[in-house]
UniProtKB/TrEMBL annotation:
Positions of the TonB-dependent receptor-like beta-barrel domain: 99-181
Keyword field contains Disulfide bond: no
Places the protein is found: Cell outer membrane
Protein name (Swiss-Prot/TrEMBL): TonB-dependent receptor
Keywords in alphabetical order: Cell outer membrane, Membrane, Receptor, Signal, TonB box, Transmembrane, Transmembrane beta strand, Transport
GO cellular component, one term: cell outer membrane
Organism: Rhodocyclus tenuis
Organism placement in taxonomy: Bacteria, Pseudomonadati, Pseudomonadota, Betaproteobacteria, Rhodocyclales
Length: 208
């Protein structure tokens, strides 16, 4: 696809400028073989500037390097780049801890179904068309109240969910998800059991 786009774009006599760096001599030779007779301007190669030189110039100019470089990766291809998506992956995660004391101002009682502690952690890895992830949730004890106002304790629980998406093309995605993979028994509402381990797959369409 990339070659076809270039062939459709260039016309006889066009001058093309590329940001090939000194370490990309093999890529440059391949491009020249496929584009004989074209005038190519190569400012970085002509000055024997490699990736390290370019990064140093950017930093000296006071410009912040892309996040992937600052995280220690050698490449920083954007996610929208087809080649970048195929060759490199990204790992994203996070944790959160919520501490609260939700109480009724009039009675001083804890609000129903409000845990005082909640912990969540998630991690996702994507490479090319594939994205996989998981989440872990810990919820502390909660109270429910019957019609007479008597408190009933709901036990704390934990839950692990995992998911995977595979992009078939720009608009269609195949996905799968498994909820509560450890098959825990718990209640979100008293006397109403939450679903045990479950798994489902599907296809998602999103017009671009």
């Amino acid at each position: 696809m990339k070659r076809r786009l270039l062939d459709n774009w260039k016309q006889p006599g066009d001058i093309m400028m590329f940001g090939y760096i000194a370490e990309e001599a093999d890529r440059l030779d391949d491009f020249r073989e496929r584009n004989t007779g074209r005038e190519i301007i190569l400012p970085l190669v002509d000055r024997v500037l490699g990736k390290g030189n370019c990064k140093a110039m950017v930093e000296r100019a006071g410009i912040l390097l892309p996040m992937q470089f600052r995280r220690g990766y050698d490449k920083a291809n954007c996610k929208c780049c087809i080649k970048g998506g195929e060759a490199y992956g990204s790992l994203v995660g996070g944790v959160s801890l919520d501490l609260q004391q939700a109480r009724d101002d009039a009675t001083g009682k804890r609000l129903a179904y409000r845990a005082e502690q909640q912990f969540k952690a998630h991690l996702a890895y994507s490479t090319g068309a594939l994205k996989v992830g998981g989440e872990w949730q810990l919820v502390g004890a909660r109270y429910s109240y019957d019609y007479a106002g008597n408190a009933r304790l709901l036990d704390r629980y934990s839950r692990i969910n995992v998911s995977a998406d595979y992009r078939l093309d720009r608009e269609w995605t195949l996905f799968a998800r498994a909820n509560n993979v450890s098959d825990k028994k718990y209640e979100l509402v008293r006397n109403y059991a939450a679903p045990r381990a479950s798994f489902f797959v599907g296809v998602r369409y999103q017009q671009k």
